[in-house]
Amino acid sequence: MTTPHKIIHLDMDAFYAAVEQRDFPEYHGQPVIVGGDPDRRGVVATCSYEARRFGVRSAMSAARARQLCPQAIFVRPRFAVYRQISQTLHTIFRRYTLQVEPSPDA
Q1: pLDDT per residue as tens digits for the range 24-81
Q2: Going by DSSP bridges, is the β-strand pair 32-35/73-75 parallel, antiparallel, or unpaired?
Q3: Could you please report the per-residue DSSP string of 76-101?
Q4: How far apart, in whole angstroms, are the C-alpha atoms of residue 53 and residue 95?
Q5: What is the rounded CA–CA span in Å between residue 17 and residue 35?
Q6: DSSP label at 102?
Q7: Is the dihedral of CA 30, 36, 41, 47 positive or negative?
């Protein structure tokens, strides 16, 4: 008898915003937008689920995001931090299986 396959999908669409909320407790429960400056043609890289409730989405202009959610907290991306946390997560995944397939656009 063969062991059934199990597939686990992790949706990390709001990952950057979640890291910011983890690292800065004052952001917890707040609409957080990670991306460029809304005053300088910035773009939203991602946002927290609290910001999404106002219609903010990835790849939208930061100026439009501010119009939709003026109370949002805008933060610049910290890619080195996100990369380190992602590597830690992959190390954990590999404790259980070597068959980890990150998304090609990850």
Answers
A1: 999 999 999 999 999 999 999 999 999 999 999 999 999 999 999 999 999 999 999 9
A2: parallel
A3: ---HHHHHHHHHHHHHHHHHH-S---
A4: 36
A5: 10
A6: -
A7: negative
Task: For domain 15-96, give the CATH number.
Answer: 3.40.1170.60
What are the Cα distances from residue 60, in Å, to 43, 69, 93? 6, 12, 32
Residue 44 belongs to what H/E stretch? strand 44-47
Give the pLDDT score at 94: 85
- Of the pLDDT bands very low, low, confident and very high (cuts 50, 70, 90), residue 95 is confident
Q: What angle do CA 57, 72, 21 make, to 5 degrees?
A: 85
Q: Are the C-beta atoms of 34 and 16 separated by less than 8 Å?
A: yes
Report pTM: 0.84
Report whether 55 contacts 20 (CB < 8 A).
no
Q: How far apart are CA 10 and CA 55, in angstroms?
A: 23
